[in-house]
Amino acid sequence: MIASGRQLLGWINEKDQGRFASGYQEWYTRSLSVVRQLTPDRLDDFQRQYREDKRKDVNAGNYVLDDYVRGLTVGYPARTFDTHGPAVSRFHVQLTILASGRSRLSDILANIRGLLRADLFDSEIDAARHLKQNGHLRAAGAVAGVVLEGHLRELSQKHEVKAARKKRLGIADYNDALKNASIFDIPTWRGVQRLADIRNLCDHKGDREPTVNEVDELIDGAEKASKTLN
Hints:
The chain is mainly alpha-helical. It has helices at 2-13, 17-38, 43-48, 65-69, 84-100, 108-111, 124-133, 137-158, 171-180, 186-203, 212-228.
């Protein structure tokens, strides 16, 4: 969604209204669902950039993306203004809100509303399997990745292992640190690295979707790691 949003941003910056309009409606529908699940507190703001129902006239302050997509222009006798500027500004806001959802994926149990009720499950691994069974492969992989990352973080603290100095540490960072401290042997390190690669595939939209087998491998691997790596 971020990649397609950047493509739309390029078209609207180039004032290619036709190409922007042809792709925006699908992007908005899909992005709205993502925002609703990951950043529900920003949902109203996201929707306001698209449509404004409570207005008596159209001006630069309330011109929205629905107007731009429909090709609405404003001229005499209303006060004329350049409709392109407000449209670009509002799309920037939507793209920023969508991008902010990435930072909440690590707390996916609390934010994927409608897909998951954490109190229905005995463990996060059970939650991941439930998500997978219902076809939500990326969400299932993200939850399993949180489990694995959390266990590796606790393991590093237990053995007083210092990982790389980064603002946000991930599975690969803890895995490398534990190998360098001789807590993990090479086969264990390679196995965890494989799980980290699958987790990244689930967390970031790339060239392809994760497969069912890959998500199963990540869930099973995270469960095994949490029970056997100590």
